[in-house]
Design brief:
globular, alpha/beta, 6 helices, 21% strand, 160 residues, six-stranded mixed β-sheet, single chain, Rossmann fold
């Protein structure tokens, strides 16, 4: 998939990282078509796909730790099923895919995950909730600034 096809808004440093692609989802951004586009890109680039699902503070901060733990377990289970189905849909049975579900601030968790993963591209599934930010551009810029990684908004060609 070309950069034009997968991104509308981006903040991209000059060199392409060689580590895994990091797909980030929160507040409903993990829609099937966006995940399929991210998976196709990982296959095309022959890179692993790491899926970071965030239970963001804007939606979940009022829940106690035991409820968050249950939500994390349930979301991980659902994402495992979704990604197995998506692998079959895009013919990516051999693609290395991992899932991490965390609770907190989106920008902070993306930065921590990139620090742990090494060089990576950050893919954000559209549509993007921009709560706490003025625009998608501002949010992408904050993530790119904190991580030093290319950040792209995944805009699927197909509907869910």
């Amino acid at each position: 998939m070309s950069a034009e096809r997968s991104s509308q808004k981006s903040a991209v440093p000059s060199e392409r990282p060689t580590g895994p692609l990091l797909y980030v989802s929160w507040g409903g951004t993990g829609r099937g078509a966006s995940v399929r586009e991210a998976m196709r890109e990982a296959v095309e680039q022959q890179r692993p796909l790491h899926y970071l699902a965030v239970l963001d503070d804007e939606h979940f901060a009022d829940l106690d730790h035991s409820m968050i733990a249950l939500l994390i377990d349930e979301l991980r289970w659902l994402l495992e099923a979704q990604l197995e189905l998506t692998r079959a849909q895009v013919g990516a049975d051999d693609l290395d895919v991992s899932i991490v579900v965390r609770a907190g601030q989106v920008v902070d968790l993306v930065a921590e995950t990139v620090d742990g993963a090494g060089e990576t591209d950050v893919l954000i599934g559209a549509p993007v909730p921009v709560a706490g930010h003025h625009s998608i551009e501002e949010l992408i810029g904050q993530i790119a600034s904190r991580t030093g990684s290319p950040v792209r908004l995944v805009l699927p060609d197909e509907p869910d």
